Amino acid sequence: MDISFTAQRINEIIDLQHLVFNINNATVSEVTEKMIEMGYLSSHEKLNELIHVIENAIQHRPYNHNNIAILALSVFEKINDEVLKNHFKHRILKLQVERFSNIDDVFVISFLHKCYHLGFFTNDEIISIILKKSLLYQKTTEDNNESSSRYYQKDSVKFTYLCYFAPLLKAEVPQFYDEVLQEMINSGLPKYSMFLSKLEFFQKSKWELLETCADHCYIPGTIEWIIQNDDLEGLKEFENKPEFDANKFIFEKVLVENVPFDVNMRIQPFVFEKARILTNYPTIIQFAAFHGSVKCFTYLFKKGANTNLTDKIGINLSQFVAAGGNMDILAFYAKNRYNFEGAAHFATAYYHFDILQWLIKNKNVNIQTSVEHLGTIVHRSAASNNISILKYCFDCNCDVNIKTKYGETPLHAAAAKGQIEALKCLLNHPDIEPNAVDNDQCTPFYFAVLYHRKHVVKFLIKNERIDINKPDDEGVFIIIYQTALHIAAKLGYFDIVSIILTSNRINANYKNNNGQTPLHYASRFNQLDVVKLLLLDDRININAEDNLNQTPLYVSIMQNNVQIVQELLSSSRINPNIPNIVGYTPLHIGVELGNIECIEQLIKSTFIDVFIQDENGMTPLILSAKNGNVDAFEILKSLYQKDLNEIKDNNDVLNIYL
């Protein structure tokens, strides 16, 4: 049990979340002073908690980014210690690298945009993080040989940065701007079509219209703009005259296309939409519900909007109502409809405790009821880091180890989402099972590694109760039994691997069902930095053999991972002559596959035996002759000190070849 995370600390987190989530322009100074009083500006630990709460707030209060950014700047200016000051700024910037991993996480870049315009970051800092992020995704996809389907995510990162920071990028790094813009045009991704169609107008307005979109998500005069501002008269005018005159809002005509009005029409994807819940084609009444646009919601309801429709991923109207958090809309909806499935879960995820309490009282919601894909309220509070509702669940004696249909507990949910405060609360509970497994035998620690939650891994690795060597049993036809370290090595998570190796409890040579160690994985999947890191650890068996007697060197040659081969051969512990189950050594397989660069690296090794024979008595030289591999043969024959004529007289294969 983490004795430092007491009931008092839990209440402090609840107070902090309340302050940040409800910040407005008038309360920034007051909230900043309160944070100073609570000690949040005086230590790395407390400052990290504040940063994490800010991260949660920008996700679940997407339309309050400006005030949250003002708060962040106010906090920055009030920090007296220069080390802490730099740490705070660095961590806010690192959100862009660590958090913006999902193509729908626009809320993070929107927050960065707000901070930039407040003067929190310089031009150079912004450009640096954009270039770093773009290169990071390019390197990741190239290293993992990802298919063209992953091209979408990689380039979406660059495209979104360009949309938000077009003026800066065009002025300061025009070549990068032009290249990314052309890639965006070629991609044909619908999320960016509106941006591209209006780019000329953005530039003609000296980017003023672009900044309006970045601030308010949509172009003035569109149906989205009208509804989010709860402009009922504008909605009626749009209904009767779809060619709504944009001139009353901005300088150009034709900016708003002639869109036929339909009471069930859907909101199209737009890059500046920072609320993830609105990115999957919601209907306009769902859109109104989330924005708390009471007049528009009521009007659309009375006009016959289909309240049974869901968005494209199955979110229903009651869930949009709960996520929006408007009690008037909830009350109106409740009088006319009775489907509230999953509404309590969305109220929890979006930090609307009052909505949850209303649903419990008036709709007899059972907080332990599990909803498909959502789990229970305990799961949702853990996944969203909603500490007040998580504490409420504790007070109601909810089962803290309750599982979803996939076997995931609330601890899994917190670990997967990187919600460290929720994780600490759960681990502090006397009934918690810290190594609970899901249907694939994955533990919360395994989830933290899989989802690359570095801070969670760092926290859990210190907890003696956590089984860091527990393997999964995930596999469609064959159970693999791979550990968290296997996964980190395979995915190239250098930072995660380095954290795991700090533990004296780790079995660094754990073999999966195929006998493969983490070093096998890193070697096979061409994770050079991870291979280097593993080789620095004396516990690593560089010559470990899998079930086919294949060493990491052998599998790296099979994949033609030349740099990995070179790195492994540089170790004084390497034995490059270990044969596999049929007597093939790494040199044999290099010859068999014709991997010339690997062969060249092997013969440089002082440990290599070029005369070694497989179970059929063939040396690598004879094998190259048999296969007709001229390049390999020419390389190998120069190593033989005997006269080739003498060798060929005793070997029919070689004699025929020569």
Commentary on this structure:
The structure is a single chain. This protein is mainly alpha-helical. It contains 38 helices and no strands. About 5% of the residues have low confidence. Among the domains are: 106 residues, no CATH class; 82 residues, Ankyrin repeat-containing domain (Serine Threonine Protein Phosphatase 5, Tetratricopeptide repeat). It is 56% helix and 0% strand.
Topology:
Layout: H1 7-21, H2 28-37, H3 44-60, H4 65-78, H5 82-98, H6 106-117, H7 123-143, H8 151-164, H9 166-172, H10 174-187, H11 193-204, H12 208-216, H13 223-228, H14 232-240, H15 284-291, H16 294-302, H17 317-324, H18 327-336, H19 343-349, H20 353-363, H21 377-384, H22 387-395, H23 410-417, H24 420-427, H25 444-450, H26 454-460, H27 484-491, H28 494-500, H29 518-524, H30 528-535, H31 552-558, H32 562-569, H33 586-593, H34 596-604, H35 620-627, H36 630-637, H37 644-649, H38 652-657
Helix pairs in contact: 1-3, 2-4, 3-5, 4-6, 7-8, 8-10, 9-10, 15-16, 15-17, 17-19, 19-20, 19-21, 21-22, 21-23, 23-24, 23-25, 25-27, 27-29, 29-31, 30-32, 31-32, 31-33, 32-34, 33-34, 33-35, 34-36, 35-36
Keyphrases for this structure?
658 residues, mainly alpha, 56% helix
**Average pLDDT rating:** 89
Number of strands: 0
Number of helices: 38
The residue fraction in helices comes out at 55-70%
> What sort of overall outline do the alpha carbons produce when their principal axes are compared?
globular
Main structural class? mainly alpha
Point out poorly predicted stretches: 137-153, 244-256
Largest sheet: none
Radius of gyration: 30 Å
Strand residue percentage = under 5%
- Taking the alpha carbons of the first and last residues, their distance comes to 73 Å
